[in-house]
Specification:
This protein is an alpha/beta fold. Helices cover 38% and strands 15% of the residues. The chain contains 15 helices and 12 strands. The structure holds manganese (II) ion.
């Protein structure tokens, strides 16, 4: 092994052109265009009809060192070199709010516009960047169709909401089976990024709210895994891979063991029955990204090492840029782990899962 492992961030974001949806949606749907506007001292993400999200610009200033790659690919690669990151999967910014659109036609058009833009943006750089599509969920036939279209473009990953919005089936419902089957058949990893599908990420405004809110944000990923496993959707679609992003990863072992305990102790009430204990389904099909939490590494015999994907969350203020090398250097302190497992967690697992276009990560 080389002295320095290959580093893949399993959670990064690109900022789309602000006019992307305004310009590309047909006139009949243009009122649903998601864009950001500066209003007084706030940055407001909105459509004509709804304010989706408000953020103080200070949140961006708090990030400290300037990010030059939020929108620009050359700048992004310069920041990656500075931060010691070799490759990334890139999620949207405006497109994260797609699930605020209740209109099925507008939602479908928005996902297709984003996916086509993403495909053009990263063209020619697929040995460094993994494209990730966004899937529509207001009509699951559209979702299946878009999975197939993304696969035909060579995509290996696509997003579903981490929390199912009101009016969309929850993740324990068989209504999801065609979606998970299509993804498994097409080799598309289903990516659930925290916060997506929620009406708001503000859960509390009282004492400790900042810590409460961002800590609580892992619960959407935790709930999604619990529903997908307990309801049998993953069990019935055993080749489909799910990646839970920006929820940390240490909860995954705890949920696996808790679900095994409940599955056995409450057996008379358990429907549907599963072909494996819940922990076995998690080991087979669930991955999670993390930045700092080290308990997931210590507990990797429960989830399997392959479940753990290190990530930077570039360019976000709460991410590890420009200190990723320092964070990584302390990640394994006091944990008995092989160099191979370290390399897998820092990059190999994600590069293989998302089929990064480099020969060393091609399937055996
Ligand atoms: Mn993120």
């Amino acid at each position: 092994m080389s002295s320095r492992p290959f580093i893949f961030s399993a959670d990064s974001h690109i900022v789309e052109p602000n006019e992307l949806f305004l310009d590309a949606l047909p006139a009949s749907l243009r009122k649903h265009a998601i864009r950001a506007e500066k209003v007084d001292d706030m940055i407001v993400t909105r459509t004509d009809e709804q304010v989706i999200y408000k953020m103080r610009p200070q949140m961006i200033a708090l990030a400290g060192e300037k990010r030059i790659g939020a929108r620009d690919l050359a700048g992004r690669m310069e920041d990656m070199r500075k931060d010691g990151v070799d490759a990334e999967i890139c999620f949207p910014s405006l497109g994260l709010w797609t699930y605020a659109l209740a209109d099925a036609e507008a939602e479908y058009a928005t996902t297709q516009i984003y996916n086509d833009w993403n495909n053009r943006f990263f063209a020619g750089k697929l040995d460094i960047f993994v494209r990730c599509g966004v899937l529509p969920v207001r009509n699951l036939d559209n979702c299946v169709a878009e999975i197939k279209r993304l696969a035909s473009l060579g995509f290996t990953a696509a997003m579903l909401p981490s929390a199912t919005p009101a009016g969309v089936p929850r993740y324990n419902q068989p209504a999801w089976d065609p979606v998970f089957k299509a993804a498994g058949d097409a080799g598309i990893v289903l990516v659930l990024h925290t916060g997506t599908g929620l009406e708001t990420v503000i859960y509390e405004r009282g004492p400790g709210a900042a810590v409460v809110n961002y800590t609580h944000q892992m619960n959407d990923g935790l709930d999604a895994v619990t529903f997908l496993v307990a309801g049998g959707v993953l069990d019935r679609n055993p080749t489909t891979q799910v990646a839970i992003i920006e929820c940390g990863a240490s909860w995954l072992a705890a949920v696996a063991e808790r679900m095994d305990e409940v599955y056995a102790a409450h057996a008379p009430f358990v429907h549907p029955k599963l072909s494996l204990p819940p922990s076995g389904i998690i080991r087979r099909q669930v991955k999670a990204s993390f930045q700092h939490d080290r308990a997931c590494i210590a507990a990797r015999n429960v989830t399997g090492t392959q479940a753990l994907l290190w990530a930077s969350d570039y360019p976000h203020a709460e991410g590890t840029f420009p200190h990723s090398t320092d964070v990584i250097s302390r990640l394994f302190d006091g944990i008995d782990i092989s160099e191979q497992e370290k390399a897998d967690i820092l990059g190999g697992n994600a590069a293989r899962l998302f089929r990064l276009q480099r020969p060393e990560f091609a399937a055996a």
